[in-house]
Amino acid sequence: MTGIMDDGSADTPDGAGSADPVGCAKREQILKGAGTVFLANGYEGASMSQIAQMAGVSKGTLYNHFNGKASLFSAFFEEQARSRLAPIEALSRSDGQSVRVTLVRFAEMTVHLLVSPMALGLYRIIVGEVDKFPNLADTFWRYGFDRTLGNLTEYLTRSVARGELEIADPRLSAEQFMLMCQARIIQRRRFGLPVDDSDAAIAEFAAFTADSFLKIYEPRHQ
């Protein structure tokens, strides 16, 4: 899996497949400390010494698990994406409810996720430092956006096969819907602008977004 080297080249996160319980626990301890440092100092401003201190491990232990800051950030981002996207991925794999209900829930979950402090912090790191470290974008795309895009594309493809939607390009339409979900609330939160992000406001926005999408792609005979 592609990560980011300090010089911008590809790298692979270390220790991801370890079956040793002690090693796995230590790795999680390191990732937790790394997250605190990255969110506080950004990618460029974070150092392996700071991360080792925050994680409560020696630099030797840190380098036993990760060969550099790049692989560590990539592993941290992947872990956050894996755990936080799991409910959205489960929803995208489920066909037990109407398309509208699924899309409304998808939009609600997306907004709640992306306005969380963790998601906002990671977004600002990547956008703010991608010019110096281009492969930050690859990490974000691979583990975040593209992962969700693939699941939603599969869901829309199944909906088309059942005659519930008329979509010529499910992947493009999935990307369209994901970007629709980022209007208003998410965009304003990313820039620190005032916006109502209460549960009620998010629910209203999610319903509007899903209905707008369905007006385009629902079969005309319905």
Automatic annotation (TrEMBL):
**Residue segments, region Disordered:** 1-21
Name one matching Pfam family. TetR_C_7
* Domain HTH tetR-type, residue spans: 24-84
Q: Name one GO molecular function term.
A: transcription cis-regulatory region binding
Task: Specify the DNA-binding region ranges.
Answer: 47-66
Question: Keywords in UniProt for this one?
Answer: DNA-binding, Transcription, Transcription regulation
Q: Which superkingdom, per the lineage?
A: Bacteria
Identification of the protein by name: TetR family transcriptional regulator
Top-down, what is the taxonomic lineage of the species of origin? Answer: Bacteria, Pseudomonadati, Pseudomonadota, Alphaproteobacteria, Acetobacterales
